[in-house]
Write a structure and sequence with these properties.
The chain is an alpha+beta fold. It has 7 helices and 4 strands. The longest helix is centred in the first third of the chain and has 23 residues, at about 15-35.
């Protein structure tokens, strides 16, 4: 029997993996829909309902801290036992927006999700022009999602030191 890969994280519990996968699918799909249609469009309303429900389910047992890697999502240092396409796609989107950690603290309603997803749907350049997704989300005053932005200048300083 082959030993596990040294950098492969321990697997998530099946329950946590399921909640994270459903959240990732709903978030990625809703972000795409929000970028394509006006807010009143029925397709957006359906996508917002799905992300609202997935978000509610994700925080059922309390806050859900998600570490964002370029191609994966981790919870408590644990990842999916098998690659999860939706989680990988959401990780890439969040990483592109310089989000290194996303903690789902509480539930959001459809309008709050629309605000958040509209920020994610911006091009990275447009998001950075307003200080980044994390800054813009913090300015909204909503505390149901906590974001930590990757500070590449700090990373480089740490490596140099």
């Amino acid at each position: 029997m082959a030993s596990p890969l040294p950098n492969k994280p321990e697997p998530l519990s099946p329950e946590t993996a399921g909640r994270l996968s459903e959240f990732a699918k709903a978030c990625k799909a809703a972000t795409r829909v929000v970028s394509m249609y006006p807010p009143s469009h029925p397709t957006i309303q359906a996508a917002l309902s799905r992300i609202t429900e997935a978000g509610r389910h994700a925080v059922y047992d309390g806050p859900l801290p998600i570490t964002v890697l370029p191609d994966a999502l981790l919870v408590g240092g644990r990842g999916f036992a098998k690659p999860d396409a939706a989680a990988g796609e959401l990780a890439a989107l969040l990483h592109q927006q310089l989000i290194g950690e996303m903690t789902l603290v509480g539930t959001l309603d459809n309008d709050e999700w629309h605000t958040f997803l509209s920020l994610l749907a911006q091009s990275p350049e447009d998001a950075r022009a307003v200080g980044g997704v994390a800054h813009a989300w913090e300015a909204s005053g909503n505390k149901s999602i906590a974001l930590k932005e990757i500070d590449y200048a700090e990373v480089l300083r740490e490596r140099a030191g």
